[in-house]
Specification:
Elements: H1 8-11, E1 20-23, H2 28-34, E2 39-44, H3 49-64, E3 70-75, H4 80-85, E4 93-100, E5 103-111, H5 115-124, H6 129-132
Helix pairs in contact: 3-5
């Protein structure tokens, strides 16, 4: 028998919430607008090689930055209207949103897989170095 207690579906909304959340058209705007920390959104697809390389790096950063940065993923094959809305033409594309005047606005964008250091440079713009340590 497989223990399913550690799956994201069973831990959602609890203290053991997953480090990275998955957004769709229904949850995207609400999540971005209500976030109390900057949000890094990874637009990806399951078949994308560079996206697969980015996944463990983003997971590592998400665990380190929990409470200081929210990392979310959007599957471009399942959320084509979001892909169009944000002009995503290549994947992976990562967009960082931050609150300005109580509205979530895009503050940075990277197309392709920039490696861990590339992601950390994006994050450094929205999370103070003392908070990232």
């Amino acid at each position: 028998m497989t223990d399913m207690t550690n799956t994201p579906a069973s831990t959602a909304g609890t203290a053991a919430e997953p480090a990275i959340i998955h957004l769709d058209e229904a949850s995207f705007q609400k999540t971005i607008n209500e976030a109390t920390v900057p949000v890094l959104v990874d637009f990806y697809a399951d078949w994308c090689g560079p996206c697969k390389m980015a996944a463990p790096v983003l997971e590592k950063i998400a665990k380190e930055m929990k409470g200081k940065l929210l990392i979310a993923k959007v599957n471009t094959d399942e959320a084509s209207s979001l892909t169009q809305q944000f002009g995503v033409m290549s994947i992976p594309t990562v967009i960082v949103f931050q609150k300005k005047d109580d509205k979530a606005v895009e503050v940075d964008r990277k197309i392709g897989f920039p490696g861990e250091e590339g992601y950390r440079q994006m994050i450094a713009q929205v999370v103070p170095a003392t908070a990232a340590a």
